[in-house]
Amino acid sequence: MSDTEMLTGLVATIERTQRAEDVVGFLALFDPDAVWVTGGGRRLIGRTAIAEFTRAVLPGGMAGGSVTYKVEHIAFITDDVAVTGVNQQYTGPDGRPTGAGLPTYVWRRAGGTWRIVVGQNTTVA
């Protein structure tokens, strides 16, 4: 599997874990020292802070709705560092759009595994 396919699959994992409200699966995607900026603009430093926030907001966060992620681009900074730009679409129970986002994820490969080291979950007004 190519690195592009692997990263696209990891973004699909973000979507799946969000939709399933799978806190453990979501947190497994992060490097221990990751920095995450939420859609609301809150900066979280380290997987411990990301976990605390995620455990508070993800369970029940998808009630009555869904989300889809589409990779718009992938750029390789080095062989082991990549950036994915994503289009994110939230929908209500009737399938109509309720919100959108343009997340950017910086991934680092260590020991053969890609993990998010920086994430900016930008909400689109």
TrEMBL record:
<protein>
    <submittedName>
        <fullName>SgcJ/EcaC family oxidoreductase</fullName>
    </submittedName>
</protein>
<feature type="domain" description="DUF4440">
    <location>
        <begin position="9"/>
        <end position="116"/>
    </location>
</feature>
<dbReference type="InterPro" id="IPR011944">
    <property type="entry name" value="Steroid_delta5-4_isomerase"/>
</dbReference>
<dbReference type="InterPro" id="IPR027843">
    <property type="entry name" value="DUF4440"/>
</dbReference>
<dbReference type="Pfam" id="PF14534">
    <property type="entry name" value="DUF4440"/>
</dbReference>
<dbReference type="InterPro" id="IPR032710">
    <property type="entry name" value="NTF2-like_dom_sf"/>
</dbReference>
